[in-house]
Design a protein that fits this description.
9-stranded mixed beta sheet, FAD/NAD(P)-binding domain, alpha+beta, 6-stranded mixed beta sheet
Length: about 375
């Protein structure tokens, strides 16, 4: 074995990293704080864009994920509507990998599929430890670091030696904080409040609707439902959470009149919107990936794509190293490969978020964003101010 890699976090990013390293000449230990029965416990809907499916295919886990979902569609898109002027165009969700489908599924199905792949491949070099919480990462000494862990069932604290520590432990990353890696964060002051309704006609594709009452996203799910993402200011969130079902329908219809016939199936949780970019992804004997390193506003569903971009770039650096695979110089190759794509999409999604909110005020603000940039996001225009 070339050395031990400890991956902190068994969600989409961490499990994908372990899957990508399965069968390689590394000892891989994947740490997940939840017990196995709660694996991927978030049941929130996820959209796997076409390039996301392509990345999962390159890792090898796509078939295992699709085993849980039958909503694969080719040519999928998100329409952009304004309540006063109608359809303004649409974003192709398969624009960057048209040979692959767009899949609507649940977060826990994705995580379970990746873990099933790791179990099925049975390469022997990946060990998964559930119920193991990372509480800190030690200083770099003698070519490695210690990962400090808490075994949640017994309360016992231990340390693991690692030649490379990979932080895939989300936005509040213990690894990132232990390494002292700074982030630039923008709290947008809003959340998306999620609701699930029965499927309605007129929403064969997902839809972004903007207007004077605010933004609402209406997306298909892997079941016979639509998921509503209602943009709500944080200071108005409690009022929305206390609103009765019939009053909710009236509020949705103000944002998109076709929702006047909506039938609520269940309420989801609010999703606080924060833009985050880490100043660096790497340190001596350690690196961060996924939400630990970057979080875009979730307008175009790019979050998983960015995490898998990290996974594939890091796998390449470890498969074809320059010098020692765990050296800082080699890890910086990973950062140089991954960071430009991630930064572009975090900033692009942030501009798109601001643009959509400007159009809520006045549809003539359509001209405030360059059409060539929109086209680069897979947007086809059908709107003219003339």
């Amino acid at each position: 074995m070339l050395g031990r890699i400890v991956i902190c976090g068994g969600g989409i990013a961490g499990a994908s990293m372990a899957a990508a390293l399965s069968g390689m000449d590394y000892e891989v230990v994947l740490l997940e704080k939840e017990d196995e029965e709660f694996l991927g416990r978030s049941s929130g809907g996820e959209t796997m864009r076409a390039e996301t499916c392509r990345a999962f295919d390159r890792i090898g886990v796509l078939d295992d994920i699709l085993h849980f979902s039958h909503s694969a569609r080719y040519g999928d898109r998100r329409e952009l509507h304004h309540v006063k002027v109608g359809m303004m165009g649409y974003f192709r969700y398969d624009a960057f990998a048209p040979d692959y489908p767009v899949v609507h599924t649940h977060h826990n199905y994705i995580v379970r599929g990746i873990h099933n792949y790791i179990d099925r491949v049975g390469s022997g070099n990946v060990e998964i430890r559930f119920g193991t919480e990372v509480v800190g990462v030690g200083e770099y000494r003698d070519g490695g670091r210690e990962v400090h862990i808490l075994e949640r069932k017994t309360g016992m604290r231990r340390s693991l030696d690692a030649g490379l520590v990979i932080g895939a432990d989300g936005g509040n990353s213990v690894v990132r904080r232990s390494l002292g890696i700074p982030t630039v964060e923008t709290d947008l002051g809003i959340s998306y409040l999620m609701f699930y309704i029965e499927r309605l006609r007129g929403f064969e594709y997902g839809r972004f609707t903007v207007g004077p009452h605010g933004f609402i996203g209406i997306f298909p799910t892997s079941e016979n439902m639509l998921r509503l993402a209602v943009e709500v200011k944080l200071n108005e969130l409690n009022d929305w959470l206390k609103t009765g079902n019939e009053d909710l329908k009236a509020r949705w219809a103000l944002r998109d009149p076709l929702l006047n016939e909506a039938k609520l199936v269940k309420r989801g949780l609010p999703f606080h919107i924060i833009k985050r970019l880490a100043g660096s992804y790497v340190s001596e004997g350690a690196c961060i990936i996924g939400d630990a390193a970057h979080v875009p506003p979730p307008i175009l569903g790019m979050g998983i794509s960015l995490a898998l971009n990290d996974v594939l770039a890091l796998k390449n650096a470890l498969t074809n190293p320059q010098g020692h695979p765990f050296s800082l110089e080699n890890l910086r190759r990973f950062e140089r490969d991954a960071s430009p794509y991630n930064t572009r999409w975090v900033e692009t999604n942030h501009r798109l978020y601001n643009w959509l909110n400007e159009m809520c005020v006045d549809p003539s603000n359509f001209s405030k964003i360059a059409l060539d940039e929109l086209a680069g996001m897979g947007f086809s225009n059908s709107f003219s101010l003339a």
